[in-house]
Design a protein that fits this description.
Number of helices: 31
Low-confidence stretches: 1-21, 340-344
Mean pLDDT: 82
Distance between the termini: 106 Å
Radius of gyration: 43 Å
Structural class: mainly alpha
Number of strands: 3
């Protein structure tokens, strides 16, 4: 495809990035183009070889025809590198320079990252999305190939054909980080179409390609460009020693500098959530950001877990949203000097004293610890720490469970009592009761047996009540009256149920439109005539069988299926049917007679 074909873009101008190094351009004949995806490398190779189908190229490179070469996390990279003779020193270099996996490395455990990289290099990367938590994330894990029209035009002038770049394939990147124009996306792979095909943007443009962001204003454009450029910058962090704890420390430092956290590292959660949502407000209705910002408020927000001690791995896009709120680039976020933190300041002490007075005032009104935390805007643990500091106590459940209470709960569970009743009686939480039940398999078996006995007694009582009021009630009437209780008895206590049902013998009146006595007499006459015709001396001998007589009478099915209803006919047949020996003797006599007549 010519470069002029990609020249038409929307109203956004192609603006180079001011906060990102320019993307190195390839040249004609290059096997590998900088920042190109593995899918793009193999697809360009397929176009250059001239193979009639993608399966031929896949057999040459991977030894299999029907294989899906992942666009985000491809597998079998060692085999691909060997057959294509890629100019890379190690497979790790290929992963670092041509897949989106390096964008996850700064935010996850190094050992876990190494295992995933090894599976892409030497094994199969089918479980990579599960291992990275993409399937359970709010961002999603769909494969949606995207390309930039401006990048495609440059590729046509430099390497001769447009290809795929990894920065465009990362979730949340809706505009090109190098030119700022909207990306063109294709949902063929997400719809499980052409999953075993190798194709480039030139071929994909013939399908139903669409822009990810058709109509946006200037503010939305700026926010989308910021997100895409921050993600592209993450690919450059190859030698920077970052880990989840490092990111947390930088978050807290920037929050203190912005006035969203105290000098003692206590974050103002409500204020942070409000300002972050205000900053990204233009993207709140745009996928995939709509699902992310929908869970940004409250104590269970993903935002709070980013600046707390890392206990789980989060999607890089979540980190990018917080980084973009705090800084203009990854470089300014990590390397800009942060003012030194003062651990004890007069303003902080005054704010803390006011908070403590407010806690004491609300506690005197009889508020619970959770209500006080909601009123002030702090976490429950922060309220607890401050309350203990000023000597105010809140009612709390004991951490250790008393042996007597545990025994009471155990026997109540074994007896089949409802969880809500146990909680009301013992004052324990439902989660604690369920933990006691889940930790003892024997208790679970006893509870199951007790619940079955209770269910059986309940259903039997309902049935006895109905049959006592209406002794002659039938099966269908019982099923309608009892509903689920009848169904339970039918499935689990059928013998007892059948014993309780009234014994009403079913009387079946058989009606027939055929008078078999008349038919029997008529059939006996037909059989007699058929036997006489078969035994005619002038005819060639034929054995008297049931089938032969049936053919002569014209009602073979009567003799075959309904002979039990034709007693006269059956008795006649028992007399005329020929054994084989009798038929052979009659046949020999007929031949001797005809031979003598012919000689005489």
């Amino acid at each position: 495809m010519k470069a002029s074909a990609w020249a038409v873009v929307d109203k956004w101008g192609a603006k180079p990035s001011a906060a990102l190094e320019w993307k190195p351009a390839g040249s004609a004949g290059d096997i590998v183009v900088p920042e190109e995806t593995i899918f793009g490398i193999v697809s360009r190779y397929h176009a250059l070889t001239g193979h009639p189908t993608s399966g031929d190229t896949l057999i040459e490179l991977l030894g299999r025809r029907c294989v899906t070469l992942g666009t985000a996390f491809p597998s079998g990279l060692n085999v691909i590198s060997k057959h294509l003779r890629l100019q890379v020193n190690t497979i790790e270099e290929l992963i670092e320079g041509h897949t989106i996996l390096p964008c996850f490395r700064p935010f996850m455990n190094l050992a876990h990252y190494t295992r995933i990289a090894n599976s892409m290099a030497t094994g199969t990367a089918t479980n990579t999305k599960i291992a990275l938590g993409l399937l359970a994330s709010r961002v999603g894990a769909e494969d949606v190939p995207r390309f930039c029209p401006v990048c495609a035009g440059v590729d046509c002038e430099t390497i001769g054909i447009a290809t795929w770049y990894r920065a465009h394939q990362f979730p949340g990147v809706l505009v090109c980080p190098y030119h700022g124009v909207p990306l063109v996306a294709f949902d063929c792979l997400a719809q499980r179409l052409k999953r075993t095909q190798l194709f480039l943007p030139a071929a994909a443009a013939k399908w139903s390609g669409k822009s990810n962001v058709p109509n946006v204003d200037e503010q939305e454009r700026e926010r989308l460009v910021l997100v895409s450029r921050l993600i592209a910058q993450l690919f450059l962090l190859r030698t920077v020693p970052v880990n989840p704890l490092t990111w947390r420390n930088h978050y807290l430092a920037h929050l203190v500098d912005r006035g969203l956290a105290t000098a003692s590292m206590r974050v103002h959660q409500r204020a942070l959530q409000s300002e972050l949502l205000g900053f990204w407000d233009s993207l709140r209705n745009l996928p995939p950001f709509d699902g992310i910002f929908a869970r940004c408020n409250g104590e269970d927000s993903w935002l709070t877990s980013l600046y707390r001690r890392p206990r789980a791995t989060h999607h890089p896009l979540l980190h990018v949203l917080l980084i973009g709120f705090l800084a203009e680039s990854i470089e300014s976020f990590l390397w800009t000097d942060i003012p030194s933190l003062v651990t004890n300041s007069a303003a902080d002490d005054r704010a803390s004293a006011a908070t403590e007075c407010k806690i004491a005032e609300l506690a005197a009104e009889g508020r619970s610890m959770r209500q006080v935390a909601k009123e002030i805007g702090l976490s429950v643990n922060a309220v607890l720490v401050k309350a203990e500091k000023i000597g105010i106590g809140f009612m709390r459940r004991s951490k250790k469970l008393d042996v007597t209470v545990r025994s009471q709960v155990w026997h109540a569970l074994a007896a089949g009592n409802a969880i809500a009743d146990i909680v009301k009686t013992t004052g324990m939480s439902a989660s604690t009761v369920n933990r006691i039940l889940g930790a003892d398999r024997g208790l679970q078996a006893q509870r199951t047996a007790s619940l079955r006995v209770q269910r059986q007694a309940h259903a039997r009582g309902k049935l006895r009540a109905v049959t006592g009021a209406t002794p002659s009630v039938g099966f269908k009437a019982l099923r309608t009256a009892l509903g689920a209780d009848f169904t339970w008895l039918y499935r689990h206590d059928r013998a007892w149920l059948q014993a309780q049902l009234p014994s009403t013998p079913r009387i079946v009146e058989r009606t027939s439109s055929v008078d078999w006595c008349i038919r029997d007499r008529a059939m006996a006459e037909r059989v007699t005539l058929a036997v006489g015709e078969i035994l005619e001396p002038s005819r060639r001998p034929t054995r008297l069988t049931l089938n032969e007589i049936g053919r002569f009478t014209g009602n073979a099915s009567w003799l075959d299926k309904h002979l039990a209803r034709l007693p006269r006919t059956a008795e006649l047949l028992s007399q005329v049917l020929e054994p084989a020996a009798v038929f052979r003797a009659r046949q020999l006599a007929w031949r001797e007679k005809h031979t003598e007549d012919a000689l005489g």
